[in-house]
User: Fold these one by one.
Assistant:
Number 1:
Amino acid sequence: MKITANGVYDLSMRLYRGQPADAMSLSASDAIKLSETTPLHLRQSWIDEEVYEKKANMGTAIHTLVLEPLRKHTAIRILDFKDFKTKGAQDIRDASIADGVMPLLRETFDDANNAVDAIMNHRDAAEALTGGIAEQSYFAKHPLGIYVKCRPDLVNGAQIIVDIKSCGSCHPDFIRRRVYDGAWYQQAPFHCDVYERTTGRQPTDYVWICVEQKPPHAVAVYRPTLETMAAGARKNAAAIATFAECARTGVWPGYPTGVRELGLPDFAHYKLAEEELAEGGDGA
């Protein structure tokens, strides 16, 4: 059965990642892929995801334990191995994945549990996680003829969109880099836009709950600035236009043809200028 109208749907991740609507649908991760590569790469990523696996990693475990705690005994299989280097451990890991269950080493599971405890003991994080339904799929028809879709971690009882991020550090400088390098600045306005198109109202806020993967599992809650949201929205608008044109024509191009001149990146110019100044200073 195809989705034919704007709405909030309870879909499996596999169905959401596919094309379950009566027109092609674009997610935040798709828009980011288009911004960073080409339509050709996006189409290939869909082919690759036909063999989508529930990977055993800290971030996925934290999401499951926070957002779907009642499923932890069926969604996660704890394995008492030191690592996955032996064939026996690899066979059990692969069998778990084939069963649709996330295999986790006990050490990883314990770290994830401790991270979850840290989140729930953090006043602002715990408040943000109050009420609402997790992992719902939002679909909205765009004027360009496609659907835009999102799957926020949680829209809480106060209509705040909550995104849980497991990180190497919660220090503001580290998170600023992740906001850019991880394209969080695109994901946030994309989610807000789809939410508004689907429900007819804006979310009251958007926050990132960041938790460190290693002890002491420090937690911090951040929200994107208006400038950050605007920068991401501009990227998203371009990606949506490109996707709609590809969906209309059936043409998914790669990089442009022709020979183009290519210079150094901006940071290299700054570094070379600094080196030149230092060399000039040494000779003075």
Number 2:
Amino acid sequence: MRPDSIDEARPARDVDAMSGEHAGSEKPAAAIPMTVTAKPTFWNALKAALGSWWGTGPTVSRKQSSDELAEDRTDMAGTRTLMAADRTLMAWVRTSLSLNSFGFTIYKVLQGLSEAGISLRHGQSPLEVGLFLTGLGTVAMVMGTIEYAQTLRDLHIYMEIKLRRPAFIMALLMSVFGLFLFFNIVARLF
């Protein structure tokens, strides 16, 4: 006599849902092999790949002590402070870029008007305005970069921080760009 389903072929076992142990058995649930094989699909492979890359995140299976909770919260506070410092530095970068590009544009427009024969009240005004705005943008970028470096130094006490952060690299590039633009306009004065 053949069983009609797979479940009838296996003997029934009562399992306590809370403990995972079999009723009337001395063996723990982990000792009884249970294999579940899923049909390999694209979605299962994608989930596995993302799970191994992304990770499962923090899991707490036991009650944490107050010291462990404080350490976790300090780590999270340090991460939030680091992200706030990144956002602040990017605001400095945006401000500096705006001042530099506006100063350079004003310089080129006023220089074009001057070359077209339109007399300006002060002959050096295109250079002065462009120099002032690009200088202001460069100073803003350098100040923002210094502030960011000081914040990283202070945060280094609480957590390991690498200097190869995208915001810091962008700030350094913008500082070099601003200095180049500023000295290019200064060179035209002489």
